[in-house]
Design a protein that fits this description.
Order of helices and strands: HEEHHHHHH
Distance between the termini: 21 Å
Structural class: mainly alpha
Helix content: 55-70%
Oligomer: single chain
Number of helices: 7
Shape: globular
Radius of gyration: 16 Å
Length: 175
């Protein structure tokens, strides 16, 4: 599980390095999670969204790898890691200060934010994963906020893909 969190954080590191920004090594805060520090501010909203969503994208990859290991070995432990990785990264999609979803939502326009609301609503209906109600509620609030971005198709696609994959992982127990 710690390795899957590390992989999530390395997604942020890789994105920052790709933008020419030197990040710190991932730092773990017991009971709260982990973060990566960097001294240069990411001023472009699209680059900020790219960095923010890179963690959950890599985290989703870690969850899928854990799922594959569970299927290959028949291990309930790997399956639990896959499911928990889905939950952790899904929680990180909440568009609230300090969480990765807040970086992604800033660049989206109102119509794209409605698409995210719809995706969370469908994911909740299909999966029954109660955690989804939290990012759904905060995304509704952020959709009606005064500030919206100019829109970005790549960020929207990343967000929608993450909602689908992470919901699937988080719902593995019920599948």
């Amino acid at each position: 599980l710690v390795v899957s969190i590390y992989i999530h954080e390395m997604g942020h590191v890789a994105a920052l390095l790709r933008l020419g920004i030197k990040p710190s090594a991932p730092m773990f805060v017991p009971g709260l999670g982990a973060f990566v520090a960097y001294s240069k501010r990411v001023s472009d909203p699209r680059e900020d969204a790219y960095v923010g969503l890179a963690g959950p994208i890599w985290g989703a990859g870690a969850g899928v790898a854990a799922f594959a290991a569970a299927k290959w070995t028949g291990s309930a432990t790997w399956m639990a890691i896959a499911e928990l990785t889905g939950f952790i990264n899904l929680f990180n999609l909440i568009p609230f200060f300090g969480l990765d979803g807040s970086h992604g939502i800033k660049v989206l326009n109102r119509a794209q934010r409605f698409a995210i609301v719809a995706a969370f609503a469908v994911a909740w209906q299909v999966s029954g994963v109660q955690l989804i109600l939290l990012p759904l509620a905060v995304t509704i609030w952020r959709t009606f906020a005064r500030e919206t971005g100019r829109g970005d198709a790549r960020t929207l696609a990343n967000f929608l893909g993450l909602i689908a994959v992470l919901t699937w992982l988080a719902a593995l127990e019920t599948v």
